[in-house]
Specification:
Strand content: under 5%
Subcellular location: Cell membrane
Order of helices and strands: HHHHHHHHHHHHHHHHHHHHHH
Structural class: mainly alpha
Protein name: Export protein
Number of strands: 0
Keywords: Cell membrane, Membrane, Transmembrane, Transmembrane helix
Helix content: over 70%
Radius of gyration: 23 Å
Main location: membrane
Organism: Companilactobacillus kimchii DSM 13961 = JCM 10707
Largest sheet: none
């Protein structure tokens, strides 16, 4: 894998095809996942850290501001997915397909045509969101007039983010993840700087309205996207001569006009729209029904219901998406690899790559989710101040994050293997289960009900997708189950150790001090990482999943 816009050693090499099928696709997967994971983790962490000063400056208006921000962003997420129309994922998949067949010039023409479509989509859906803000507020926020300017501010970002997405998709089609990861992180930095400066000036300096502060905080999405586009354009321009050489030496374009390209793009894009929006659809259903369903079973004010929704729908969700983004990184990396293998018709390597993808997913997600469960109390207190219900919400959400991540990876794998219709059908089945389960689960579990319903729906989807993959590509379930068993065992040892430390510390020092929580969080996260890392290195489980390069880490720490 070559990195566009990378360091000097990369610049001295030629841009390579999507992958060398004679080399290990596992290495490509690991390198790509490492870049995307780093970008996702750092940007997600930064996106969570900003809440500390943001909450302090909002003061007593924080609960209302937080709920307003969450409602606007859920609508924005849906429009973002629809406006990009799944085309970035489709472009990545199809460029990988053409590159595997030595048809680079065809892939480039596809990208150029897709860029025109994305520009058009941004303008159309940005306008719909801006001018249709009152209608959207009625549909998704129970007619809350405060949400209208928030929706309009996010509509501006929808104008340009489709272009940002397709630029990332183009580079990812070459299994070139570094520019995407770097742009993702810098996008977040620019966004956070703008929103914090704007919030400070409005709330602290001018003693203004929290609604105006939320509007500027959401407008920051446009600022971040503009900076990220500039970075990706520079990365592509830097490698343009080498990309042109590949295009000139490739097979010529045959029997394809713009109409063919448009049909091809949208045929592959529609599944990405639906499945990329999967978690967002679940969240929007919660947002649209939570207050009404809760009123059937509990006697609570609108402010109390907003607080309950904010706990799981925004605050806990914001933290668990840090670890769910790990699976998104793997999914983005897996699509071009599997698409290239599919184009070559190499079933044996596809089966092996599916096994590698699933093993890597569980190797990272199980300890990450259990680790977040274990440190939920200091983590929640650090970001939001101590709240017993909030801590429970985060712990429950942490477990569900495994299912959310598994759905993300499995849907991407099925799409990469051109099983689009089945992937959509299984998602619809899971969503129907979620809808049916929502009311009874809220009746039984009250504010935890939406999370229980989500876990049931996602479990159904994941089981159906896993079954289909194994029927079509019978990967090694024996090997997979043995390694997952080891991962679960070592994760539980780590989990119990951290939970014990957590109980001892907060038993003596109390649970409300934010500074103490930060220190405990850092110590517990470090302890958990050391325990899990030592166990997987000592037993060579890491070698089996990550490859022989792990041996160097073992030598550094003198683990035999």
């Amino acid at each position: 894998m070559q990195v566009l816009g990378g360091n000097k050693s990369h610049d001295e090499e030629e841009v390579m095809p999507v992958m060398d099928l004679e080399s290990s696709s596992q290495d490509t997967m690991l390198k790509g996942s490492a870049w995307m994971t780093a970008g996702s983790i750092f940007s997600r962490i930064l996106g969570a850290i900003y809440i500390i000063p943001w909450m302090a400056w909002m003061g007593s208006d924080y609960p209302a501001a937080n709920a307003l921000f969450a409602k606007g962003y859920n609508i924005y997420s849906l429009f973002l997915i629809v406006s990009t129309a799944g085309i970035p994922g489709a472009i990545s998949k199809q460029i990988s397909h053409y590159n595997a067949l030595d048809e680079y010039s065809t892939g480039n023409k596809l990208f150029k045509h897709g860029l025109k479509i994305m520009t058009f989509m941004g303008v159309i859906f940005g306008a719909v969101m801006f001018f249709g803000a009152p209608v959207l507020a009625t549909l998704f926020t129970d007619g809350d007039p405060r949400s209208i300017p928030v929706i309009k501010s996010l509509a501006v970002a929808v104008l340009i983010i489709p272009i940002l997405s397709i630029l990332r998709g183009y580079l990812q089609g070459y299994s070139d993840m570094a520019p995407s990861a770097i742009s993702q992180f810098i996008e977040q930095i620019a966004r956070v700087i703008y929103m914090l400066v704007a919030t400070y000036l409005i709330m602290v300096v001018n003693k203004g309205s929290y609604i105006n502060a939320v509007v500027q905080s959401t407008f920051a999405a446009f600022i971040g996207a503009a900076v990220a586009i500039a970075i990706l354009v520079l990365a592509i321009l830097k490698k343009l001569p080498k990309l042109r050489r590949l295009s000139r030496s490739s097979k010529p374009v045959e029997n394809l006009n713009e109409r063919n390209f448009t049909r091809e793009i949208f045929e592959q894009a529609v599944p990405f729209i639906i499945l990329d929006a999967g978690i967002t659809f679940f969240n929007l259903f919660d947002q649209s029904t939570f207050n009404q369903f809760m009123r059937m079973f509990v006697n609570a004010t609108g402010a109390q219901l907003d607080n309950y929704y904010s706990l799981f729908g925004f605050q806990a969700n914001k933290l668990i998406m840090i670890i769910v983004s790990l699976s998104s990184a793997m999914a983005v990396t897996a699509v071009p690899i599997l698409s290239g293998l599919y184009s070559k018709g190499d079933k044996a390597k596809i089966e092996d790559q599916i096994s590698n993808t699933l093993e890597l997913f569980f190797f990272i997600m199980i300890p990450a989710s259990l680790g977040m469960y274990a440190v939920a109390q200091p983590l929640w207190t650090t970001f939001y101040r101590y709240d017993a219900l909030g801590v429970l919400m985060l712990q429950f959400s942490s477990v569900i994050s495994i299912l959310l991540g598994l759905f993300t990876v499995l849907s991407a794998v099925l799409q990469a293997l051109y099983r689009n219709k089945l992937a959509i059908k299984y998602f619809i089945y899971g969503f129907i289960v979620k809808v049916v389960a929502q009311l009874p689960m809220i009746g039984i579990f009250h504010e935890f009900g939406p999370l229980v319903a989500t876990s049931i729906g996602m479990a159904v989807v994941s089981w159906l997708m896993l079954r289909e993959l194994h029927l079509s590509y019978p990967f090694q379930t024996g090997r997979l189950s043995r390694r997952i068993s080891g991962i679960i065992l070592f994760s539980l040892i780590m989990f119990i150790s951290v939970m014990f430390v957590n109980w001892v510390v907060f038993h003596f020092v109390g649970n409300s001090d934010r500074i103490i929580s930060v220190v405990v969080l850092v110590l517990e996260a470090g302890l958990g990482g050391v325990i899990y890392g030592y166990l997987v290195l000592k037993t060579s489980l890491a070698d089996k999943i990550l490859g022989s390069k792990v041996e160097r880490i073992r030598r550094i720490f003198n683990i035999k």
